[in-house]
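Narrative summary of target 7.
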Amino acid sequence: MLAAILAASTGCGDGPSGRAAESPSQPTTSAVVPLPTAAAPAFPARVDRIFSAIPRDAEMVGHLPGFRALRESGRTGADLDALVKLVAKESAPKVGLAPADVEAILRSLRGAAVFGWLGAEEDEASLGLMLLADDPSLVDGALRTLAFVETEPHRFEGKLAGRQVHAGWVREIGLLVLSTKERLVDASFETLRGERPPLQGPQVGSGPDPLFLSLALSQQGGLVGADVTTKLTVPFDGPALFELRASGEKVPRVAEVIGPSPHALAGRMPKGAAFATGLSLTRVEGKRLRDLVAELARVDESRRREWPSLADAFVRLKTSLSLADLDAALGEEICVAGYLLDSGPKQGGAEAFSKMTVVGALAVRDEQAARAALKHVGEEIKREQKGTVLTPGKLSVPVDGAVLKVEVRKDVVLFGVGRSADLDKKLAAFGKDQVLASDPAFAGQRKGGHATSHGFAFVDYGAMKTLDPTFAEATKLQALATWVDLGLAPDPNGLSVTLEAQGFAAILGTTAALAVASVQRYLQSAKTAEAKVSVSAIARSAVMAFERESISGPTHKLCRSAPAVPAQVPRGTTYRPVAEPNQDFQTGSDSEGWRCLRFDMTEPLRFRYEYRAGSGYKGPARGGPNPGPNGFEVSAEGDLDGDGKTSLFTLVGKPGPGRTMVLSKELFVVDELE
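Modeled conformation, tokenized:
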């Protein structure tokens, strides 16, 4: 953690500081009486809160409560211990300390903070890391181990994570400040001594220091010549809040036209959504779509007056309705939800995400107008896309192995993309008994959100576990369901946007569990790269042997099978191949085994590798492809966690046209991380 946070604060410009450069003292004579110099303000005898050392004008502040505070919060449990051990293990080599020493420091912390300025000088960021430790001796030991040199009282210099670092260390109160820029240390010390005001704000109240990130940025100009200010606050308790204000003549006053809605359509969507999102289309009293177009036209001053008429012409061309007709027919909200596959192969990662079923609903006031618009759009698509089916109130279009369907009902237009069977099932379930309003994950989070808003986003990480096994390893998955409200406030000078995330504190403990599981899974995935690369290399060697030239031409014969290396599957360990004649990869002949394949590995192996020609295949028994009696299979079998259950990777070759040997396009993988 120390190395990761420090990396964010290095290589940047300096922040504001009041420290003047020191000059050598000048000699004095007996005729000159030196003026008395005021003693520098002393550091306080004790610091209970890290905020007392953070300058008020810092543009960026991130704070993490200490180990004890997190433990006593009751939101982390055993996951916190696992996370601390993992962070210590991974960061220790980068920092240059022993894992046990890093872990001891982490457990000793009363708080940690990152603070600084994001555009201080030369348009560069300037950040520092601050730690408040209960046990100063641990920091003393770390500074000695890292060979930091004391340059003056409370100030040190040295290298950390390969970078030159300035350190401010007030041992008496356990405060350490680290930065590549000395001015960050100055700013902290000046604040600590009362020479500049400390951080204030809603997040700095009474009681334990919260977990939060506060970010305030101001930008002049930009794409539409606006003045933009943003702020992100993530408190330990209560909702996370992102605020953005954009002021300028070219900024659309959207909130003056579009008002909030209750997002009633979301509750009618089918149950079990992995995510859902919605936007309000509610027009403020007296406002129409034409007014919205006029506001959006602010960004194009040269053609601002033309936009409404251009929009009307475009809508007529695409739907046969005028902009006024569309306004009268359009309801007050739109919602989209995504569902993991109900049928077909279960595949994780991006493959599963790309084959989700996505369903949407658009509220309408005029069913006949919606049917007329769909008929006009459908006829145009039918002329251009083969396989399109258009019937009254319904449209079906084939799309890259899936299908797009649109259906007009009494008060809503339903649409969706996915496998036909899954999509039909979801469309039929809309508004029936099994809906999102009755889904505990959705209903619980919806209750914590605002009754009305301009938009919302919902994610149920419990339902997302099919996409990534990491989620299945975390506890209390339902606590990871999140709800975010989007709010727009009327602003005569521009646009004010607020994003408010509910239930942040409830997911803190599970986040620790996910962090542990994700890093462990990443490390295991890195190890499986050995199997994937090696199996592919052996398979290519088999094809090359099949095509190898002899005196009479290509042999067109497969090498006969090779023995497994090593003989047993390594269980949570590695095996170094024996590089001697008739051992491991040195066995076989010109027509058999590893010598025929001309393949060799000398590095330690985490998997057992085999090559089988004609029979003895491992893959088919576990659902993999069978290359048949004239093909071959290369396999890697491992037991990374040592629990006796093995992973299997196979790649097969089969006879192709014209006496060729063709490799399968993809590896077969089962129980990859075992």
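Confidence is low (pLDDT under 50) at residues 1-38, 343-353, 473-479, 505-510.
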